[in-house]
Design brief:
- The chain folds into 2 domains: 54-154 and 289-315, Rossmann fold, CATH 3.40.50; 157-286, Rossmann fold, CATH 3.40.50.2300.
- It has helices at 2-32, 65-80, 95-108, 120-132, 157-172, 188-204, 219-232, 244-257, 270-277, 289-304; strands at residues 54-59, 83-88, 112-115, 137-140, 151-154, 177-182, 208-214, 238-241, 262-266, 283-286, 312-314, 318-320.
- The chain is α/β, with parallel strands linked by helices.
- It is 48% helix and 17% strand.
- The protein is elongated and about 60 Å long.
- Strand 1, helix 2 and strand 2 form a beta-alpha-beta unit.
- The protein has a 6-stranded parallel β-sheet, with helices on both faces. A 6-stranded mixed β-sheet has the order 7-6-8-9-10-12, with helices on both faces.
- It is built from 10 helices and 12 strands.
- Helix 2 crosses helix 10 (289-304) and helix 7 (219-232) packs across helix 8.
């Protein structure tokens, strides 16, 4: 009887303490196994991103340093507004890949899409489908004017082409021979750029265009085109590079061959700026690339909030030559 009462007394005294000890031990073990107590403020969400206010998709024509710069600017603006970006770019310019990327973003139910279409007509139906599904779409660099896109961010490429042609006449006068390398033959921006260039020199000079070639998004073809054109027309006076790939490959080709002819280009990158300042590129037309990223995010934000935006948002042409000053910080 005495032993029984003593046991009951000890259990009443020590059993609760043993339970507390076991609970503490289990919690400590859980922490060591990477399973923090969710009741402790701030621990459960460490390493977990906050839920974004919106999710926007950006689709480029292809991967290139020019678009990496645009992405950095877009990310800076997106971060300020709690926006998540999904950035996509085919390894090479590829219509079917851009269509699939659009389809994926529509299925994901993103809050907005920005695209530089490689083929305006072919991408018009999928752009319009996104808008019909309640997703605002804006085009940048190259437009799809027959689609339901809600804004275009870029320049008037007809004027851009004429602007570069004007600078060509500054260096060649009214006579000379030129070769041209362009990108995707069905990309609206490049079609307009070429049209503006050719119309200006036809109206204002006797400059002859010896050859026009398209690399269709293939950098190796662009290099091969340059080899063929310079061999076929050794007395040419200037090369016009109409898109980022053409420009990058032209810089490499000029270095390798030690060419001294004039090189006029579109699109400002750190590589291009270096080539301008070392005399390889005579003139470059920037189409406000430094503003594209922030304008894309801000425009999609306004549309997502139900506000009106300008259908055409001009990023403006700027012409740079050696010893010119760039007033904005480039390629940090």
């Amino acid at each position: 009887m005495f032993r029984h009462r003593w046991f009951e007394k000890m259990m009443r005294k020590w059993f609760p303490r043993w339970l507390a000890f076991l609970a503490f031990f289990s919690t400590a073990a859980g922490c060591q196994n990477g399973m923090p107590d969710p009741a402790v403020p701030g621990i459960a969400e460490s390493g977990e991103p906050e839920t974004p206010a919106y999710v926007f998709g950006i689709i480029y024509p292809y991967a290139h340093p020019l678009y990496e710069w645009v992405t950095r600017q877009a990310e800076e603006t997106a971060k300020k507004h709690g926006v998540k970006l999904i950035v996509k770019a085919p390894d090479e310019a590829h219509l079917e890949q851009q269509i699939r990327m659009m389809e994926t973003l529509i299925k994901q139910g993103v809050d907005g899409i920005a695209i530089a279409p490689v083929d305006s007509d072919a991408l018009t139906p999928i752009i319009s489908l996104a808008v019909e599904n309640g997703i605002p779409v804006v085009c940048f660099e190259s437009d799809a004017p027959r689609s339901e896109r809600m804004a275009f961010i870029g320049t008037d490429n007809l004027i851009s082409g004429r602007t570069l042609a004007d600078k060509l006449t500054d260096v060649l006068g009214e006579n000379g021979m030129v070769i041209l390398e362009s990108g995707m033959s069905r990309m609206q921006s490049l079609q307009k750029r070429l049209e503006g260039f050719l119309s200006y020199i036809d109206e204002r000079s006797d400059i002859r265009v010896l050859d026009v070639r398209y690399h269709e998004g293939d950098d190796q073809k662009a290099l091969a085109d340059l080899e063929i054109m310079t061999e076929n027309h050794p007395h040419f006076n200037a090369l016009i590079a109409l898109d980022p790939i053409s420009v990058s490959q032209s810089i490499l080709f000029w270095k390798a061959k030690g060419l001294k002819q004039y090189l006029l280009a579109f699109g400002l990158t750190s590589e291009v700026w270096e080539a301008v300042n070392n005399g390889q590129i005579t003139y470059v037309v920037s189409q406000g690339e430094a503003r594209w990223g922030s304008m894309i995010v801000n425009t999609l934000l306004q549309l997502r909030k139900g506000k009106k935006v300008d259908k055409y948002q001009d990023t403006q042409n700027e012409i740079f030559a050696k010893d010119d000053r760039v007033d904005w910080v480039l390629f940090e």
